[in-house]
């Protein structure tokens, strides 16, 4: 009967609405979906050289795709800070609290007269001259939004526009790519081998 069909349809509608109410649908554009599904795109060389940054690269890309630009900046700044730490380690100026505070010490090395630089500083002087401006530009890009006290990042304003967040991410990616390509690798450890003539 028509009345039965009407009752079944109403019951079906209620069940569908009940099921849908348990799920949350988020629509992404094609470019956003691609960034969310392929968060390491354009970061291959960086992640290949520095495995430790993979998580924060992925979280930054996914956050940006979801429109959470403050979170995207937060994670990518951790990637940039890792890069600063690696440069500071090369020059043995990482200090007790490695991080953004190392930039000041690296700048002091860069500004020294050539004769006052150590052999290590002279050897990698060009590398530091090329990398330091990139690192400083990244730090300057968020200085009005984040306070840096005692080597800790303290957020003043987490409201980043997509343009500003994109610029910070792009600058960090360029800095880290350069670092992945040019940071001198530590010498391979000497492996001792037993031979008939002794251990070498």
Key descriptive features of the protein:
200 residues, 9 helices, two-stranded antiparallel sheet, 6% strand, two-stranded antiparallel ribbon, elongated
SSE layout:
Layout: H1 2-20, H2 30-37, H3 44-49, H4 54-65, H5 69-90, H6 102-111, H7 119-123, H8 125-141, E1 146-149, E2 152-155, H9 162-182, E3 194-195, E4 198-199
Antiparallel strand pairs: 1-2, 3-4
Helix pairs in contact: 2-4, 4-5, 5-6, 5-9, 6-8, 8-9
Describe this structure in words.
A hairpin with a 2-residue loop joins strand 1 (146-149) and strand 2. Helix content is 60%, strand content 6%. It has helices at residues 2-20, 30-37, 44-49, 54-65, 69-90, 102-111, 119-123, 125-141, 162-182; strands spanning 146-149, 152-155, 194-195, 198-199. Helix 4 (54-65) runs antiparallel to helix 5 (69-90) and helix 5 packs across helix 6 (102-111). A two-stranded antiparallel sheet has the order 1-2. It is mainly alpha-helical.
């Amino acid at each position: 009967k028509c009345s039965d069909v009407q009752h079944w349809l109403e019951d079906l509608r209620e069940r569908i609405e009940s099921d849908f109410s348990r799920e949350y649908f988020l629509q992404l554009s094609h470019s956003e979906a691609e960034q969310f599904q392929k968060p390491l795109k354009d970061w291959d060389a960086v992640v290949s050289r520095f495995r430790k940054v993979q998580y924060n690269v992925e979280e930054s890309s996914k956050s940006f795709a979801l429109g959470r630009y403050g979170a995207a900046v937060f994670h990518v700044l951790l990637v940039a800070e890792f890069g600063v730490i690696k440069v500071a380690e090369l020059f043995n100026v990482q200090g007790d609290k490695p991080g953004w505070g190392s930039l000041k010490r690296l700048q002091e090395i860069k500004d020294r007269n050539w004769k006052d630089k150590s052999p290590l500083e002279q050897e990698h002087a060009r590398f530091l001259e090329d990398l330091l401006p990139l690192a400083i530009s990244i730090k300057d890009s968020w200085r009005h939004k984040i306070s840096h006290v005692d080597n800790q990042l303290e957020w003043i304003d987490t409201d980043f526009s997509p343009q500003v967040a994109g610029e910070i991410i792009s600058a960090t990616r360029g800095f880290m790519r350069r670092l992945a390509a040019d940071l001198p690798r530590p010498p391979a450890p000497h492996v001792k081998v037993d031979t008939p003539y002794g251990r070498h």
